[in-house]
Amino acid sequence: FGSRGPCSCSRPSRAVPPRSGSAMSHGHGGAWQQNGAWQQNGAWHQNGNSVAPQSRAADLRAACAERATPHAATASNGVAVSGEAKPPVTTIGSLVVGEVVDVFHRYAQDPNGYFMVHQASSGILHPSIGWTDGWTTARVAEAWDARSFHPSDYKTWPQIQWLHPVWYNRRGHRLDVKNPNMITQRVLPEQIRQQRTPSEAQQSPRLTLFHVRWGGEQPVNPVTEGAGGWGQIGATPSDNYINGLEDHIFRALGPTYEIISAFIQGSEELAKINAPLLRHMMQGKHVGALYFMWPISYQDGHAFPAYVDKARLCELMVQMEATGIPTRFPHQSHLYKIFASKEWTAQMCLHPLLRVPLTTMVARQALAHDPSKAAATAIEALSNLSKTRAAWNATMGIAENRAGAPVQKGVAKLGWSWEAMDVRAWKNRNELADALENLGEQPGSYVDYVFVQEWVDFDVEMRHFIVEPDLKKPATLKPKKIIYTVFKSREGGSFRNFDRYDRAQCLEMCFHSDDAALAHAESQAQEVIVRWLEWLQAQSHELPVVTRFDIMAKRSAPGKAYIMTGELTELGGCFLGWPEGPKTVFSAMVRSFFRDPIPAAS
């Protein structure tokens, strides 16, 4: 916990984004522009931040050049899927005015978010559902020759006018296609195919993805800043993150897929998604669903975008999976519940080989009736568990450095909680009683239990990213990256702010330059991670594509350290500033889209 900062923005009043005026166009990269910038609720924005209109044009051209630069990666052979980004393929040499062409529309290129629908009600009524990525037709608006094309100069890109008749944005506003300026856009030539030549546009897509994402008035704060922020990729439900993933998908697969997206603005809309009908809409040889939501144990009515009722989201996931649409993000429904609920902490805390802090679960009814009594019995339960752990370890001949000691302090926290919002430290019964009441009795709470854990002293938390593990291949069980973090402050008993280090900094700052002790901690951590992966094999016949294992470590003596498991973090956990993290994880995700055989026709 503590790897993310919360978004506590209040919801603004409903406003219709401006869509009139001849200066507006469906310009660069799909961005709806006016004098080179885009507007939302009357304010100028760039990547979610307010900017001056005159500054946008130069930044826009720089972004064009960056997005057009080929990524260095291993290319797919056309059959196997590497998942890595690769240079784009351009097939056109010239275009003439009025020529009708196939164009691959990409929602990630459109900050104001217009997408294709076949019926107006699909865009007007929530959840809004339509094709956000995929092939459609357009008419060439000006003559174009490849010899004059420069990826860094967007004025040299082909200019087209969309021919699809019905477009809506996530807020239910329809695009005025009668105004030529509203449907005119420059796109990269790699997204255009001429109809006289056989191409991907005339074939069934290799892949159809269904994205469930936030469509409410208040956007998701990507929380890109600070050591505890998500970095430039942004928080998982944010447009930053989804756009980054979709850009990687395009670079990895080319225009051979389609994406259907549902934009929801509240939990109840999840129940309105018809899984069998959606499966009928999906034309890809492979299909999958990705849920960019944060499920919680609360009613709607809070101020946090993309936080939805966990029961409704899990019900949708099961319905989709039962219809033959597998979950590709974050995990299949039953495994996601294991990660998000955190119930594994109580279930496995007595297992000596997994090194989990002692944990008990306090029932909602107990804390609602008498928080003080609930706190006292929870502390007693932890002390009983401490004796049990010592007895079990003695039976198995395992040394225990805290042999049956009573538990005097710890933390209380919730499952189904995000952005480190629901963790409280306590050091006596009164503080624990306050924590139980504050956590369990929040507005709209459906919380049915609160975890109470023993306190663990540690010098550093080592965050291990395990990608595509295979128990038959030991090399795959080693982390692709380890990030070392230390909490530097607590706010009201909550853990939010921390510093992060590389190994050399951790060695100096946290382990007194005792390399042998840090190596001892790392060695133990690797052993525990392998055991967790073996345990996860029992929870799912398919191991998770990505898991982040957070291991707490403390230097106990010269050359020695002890460790405890802090967290098992699902696919979608914060990258913690790992520069190669998005590329590494997104590549693995793309490969996972194709790991099942093509389903037989029903």
Main sheet properties: 9 strands, mixed
Q: What shape does the CA trace take?
A: elongated
Instruction: Tell me the structural class.
Output: alpha+beta
End-to-end distance: 44 Å
Strand content: 15-25%
Architecture blueprint of SSEs:
Blueprint: E1 24-25, E2 33-34, E3 38-40, E4 43-46, E5 49-50, H1 53-68, E6 94-95, E7 100-106, E8 114-116, H2 120-124, E9 128-140, E10 144-145, E11 159-162, E12 167-169, H3 180-183, E13 184-186, E14 192-194, E15 207-214, H4 239-253, E16 257-264, H5 275-281, E17 286-291, E18 294-296, E19 307-309, H6 310-322, E20 327-329, H7 333-341, H8 344-348, E21 359-363, H9 364-369, H10 371-395, E22 410-413, E23 423-426, H11 429-440, E24 449-454, E25 460-467, E26 481-487, E27 490-491, E28 494-495, E29 498-501, H12 503-510, H13 515-539, E30 546-557, E31 560-569, H14 581-592
Parallel strand pairs: 15-16, 15-17, 17-20, 18-19
Antiparallel strand pairs: 1-2, 3-4, 4-5, 6-10, 7-9, 7-14, 8-12, 9-11, 9-16, 11-13, 21-24, 22-23, 22-24, 25-26, 25-30, 26-29, 27-28, 30-31
Helix pairs in contact: 4-14, 10-11
